[in-house]
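To: structure subgroup
Subject: Chain for Friday's discussion

All,

I'm putting the inputs and outputs inline so they're searchable in the archive.
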Amino acid sequence: PGNDRDDDDDDDVFDDARKRPRDVTTADAPSTPPQPSTKPPPPSPLSQASVARTPFIAPSPARWRERYAPTCEACERDRKHCAHHAEVPLKLLIIGHNPSDHSWESGYSYSNPSNNMWKLLVRGEIIPSAWTSDDCPRLAGELGIGFTDAGTEPGNDANAYGRAVMKEWREDLYARLRGHLCRASGRAIGGEEGDVADEIDDAAKTWRATAAAFGPSVVAFAGKRQYAQLFDTIPKRVEVGKQPPGSLPPRWPFCEDATEVWVLPSSSGRAAMTREARETPYLELGARLAEVEWPRRDGGFRGGAERRREPMKVLLRYDR
């Protein structure tokens, strides 16, 4: 999950270089009388909580995949979801923009040699000094560090993805993050597609408790653009560093009181900034992570929460 884009510039992260054309204009629309709506009523907030059953894996011959847990050699080779290693609450989850062409093919986050991510992680003492992108599969199991991206399609130009696409990515990203949360908690993802909880309030409380107990300790966005695009109205400015809990995007799937959210500068070699401006947030993040216990003393679960397995009844839009 890391975008190795060589053209990423955080000064331009909120500009869309192109707009997607409309499929049908008003003049093209057929002149038929209006029909009664067959669409279901607007869903409740929880019914929007779609869940991805398994982490995303790129179709062959590409090798990119989300990494919330280690992957055994056989599953890595066969491009399969690895059920041999359970997902547990992470110390850090890094969210990039979308996989670069290089990462899409290599399967390793930020694998483009021109990208600075692995050097920045070393500089911040977040990973051992000798580790590189080749060690990407080790991070989740040995350090509690996972990787994903806002978008799950390859590309080297972030601005090629307009606002409409970014909104679609937001919903898919949230579904994948909820899926990780369910798997890390040991909860079954219950129901078939379209199954919605009857008791929305009770289910929402259960979800919040699950997010508080089993969510990552820290989520870090490796770039401003993908974070800003999560908001219904794109903010004019996003500051790097730890984000105030009350300022997070709407419908954020993790618990704002339990999972810290950080925004980091782009690691792209062409992002225009000084070395100090690029490195300082990673140094600050590294200092914060040094204070975070992992694996968690309670067996890997925040607050001593017990590992439960009753199903979470949520709408399943994504069944991978």
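Points worth raising on Friday:
Residues 15-37, 39-48, 190-200, 299-320 have pLDDT under 50 and may be disordered.
Strands lie at 92-96, 145-149, 189-190, 218-222, 241-242, 260-264, 312-313.

D.
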